[in-house]
Amino acid sequence: MKIYISPMAGYTDYSYRKILKKFNPDLLFTEMVSAHLLNENDEATEKELLKCDDKENEGVQVFGNDKNELIKAFLKLENKGFKNLNLNMGCPQTKIIKNGAGSALLPQTDFVDSLLSELKSKLSDKTKLSIKIRIGYRDFSSPELYIDLANKYNLDFICIHGRTREQLYNGKADWDIVSELSNRPRKIDFIGNGDLFEAKDIVSLIKKSNLDGIMLSRGIIGNPWLISQIRELLNLGEITTFPDFDTVKNAVLEHISYLEENKGKIVAALEINKYLQPYFKRFETEDLKNNLKEIIIERDIDKKIKDIEKL
Q1: Which helix (H) or strand (E) holds 28?
Q2: DNA-binding: is it a keyword of this entry (predicted)?
Q3: DSSP-assigned states of every residue in 84-102
Q4: What is the per-residue pLDDT across 41-60, written as a single tens digit (0 to 9) for each?
Q5: For 2-236, CATH number?
Q6: Which end of the chain has the least Cβ crowding within 10 Å, N or C?
Q7: 52: annotated active-site residue
């Protein structure tokens, strides 16, 4: 069972991917990249989003709505050495949808068919191309069409998130639909996605479906140990990895060191904040909550590190 890490804007940056790689996911993605900005040689895209030590095993997901621009972006990424490229057709965010990208591509099956055809003809056979979709958008409710297209062009995989665009991240991912889709005839890998937070629940979903892999998203934020727990439950029938407080604290300090090295002290002090509560949520007490609030407010990275060390 393959375990992939989803591209998540603001989370799967270079620093957190260094933490995740220690747990050996089968594939992890950089943050989502705009085809337009990539083609414009945007500095943040080039220097931050695409910063990568392992282009063989770290993929890039691209969003956009212009065929020529998308093709140019995919070819540029291939020329940069990236071997795993994914077309985003699942992002539900309004700012992406307004530009006709993300989930807004779902009803445009002819456009996507033509795009995939050209990409497959122009990319090297060694470059793995895939798509990530949701189960619906407005009047479109036929995700099986994209399984057929993925088969037609022999893509590396299709990843299906069990929500419609309209749901955003509300309600529950419909794993009945994901499971049903996973049983359709196909020759490519089927990756399931959506609401994958706890190892026991994830393994239960795996056993009810015909998956080749899963793609972890929000459940992996502050919890890289989830990768180990899933594998243990699948292979051993029990979970043996239960990180104690000091293990988590040391991971946080290591994460801060990567952020500081990559982005400097000021940015590190700000960016670690969104990870702190997810990291420590399994140990939540009222005192810890109050201490974390104080640490999050603190803007001096050296003081912040000392306060974390004292937890």
Answers
A1: strand 27-29
A2: no
A3: EEEEEE----HHHHTTT-G
A4: 999 998 899 999 999 999 99
A5: 3.20.20.70
A6: N
A7: no
